Fold this sequence. Notes:
By secondary structure, this protein is mainly β.
Amino acid sequence: MRLALPFFFLPTLISTTTTSKCPPFNYQKSFAFTSLLPHNFSAAYLTLPIPTFTPDFRMVISHTPKVSVGLGPWGQRNWIAFTGGSWAAVWGSGSVVSGGQDSQLETADLSSRIMTTYLLMTNDTKPAYIVITAQGWRTGSRKVLERLNDPKTADMIKPSEYKFLLAVSMETGNSRYAHVNTKMWVGSAAKVGTEIVYDAYVL
């Protein structure tokens, strides 16, 4: 599947995978709030390992227009069906199997709670199947989200104008890819026409 990206889109995504120098991490300063814990609680002064983020895969998902389920007790519920896609990772590549979905919840300020479940197939001669679950939020100013929800103006919105963040997990019974079962990822995504593109970083 070939993805046509607006001129401003690709550089933005590429920049998320580059390594930049960060100032030294000051644990005591960043976690100064631990002083609010009881002073006799020795764990309050324990220095823990700092998570690292490593670029691991990119996902491109095609989907149908959203179907409005209606206004429920927690907001506007939308159903979005996934029709296919492709992915490439440090550890493999393949396609997105048609049939996945996003049970999206839209709040009063137009923020969207993303709750997706779908199936990956690897490009191996004997393919493996991997269930992937991604949850998160798409947030931004009301003006930007209104334009993002309008098919006529959605592709004019730069990914940097809103946040689309995901927490990702996977499951498979195939021994070749068993390593994904115990890993965690965070993702940065964007909407492009009828496709969702996201980069995932393994913790």
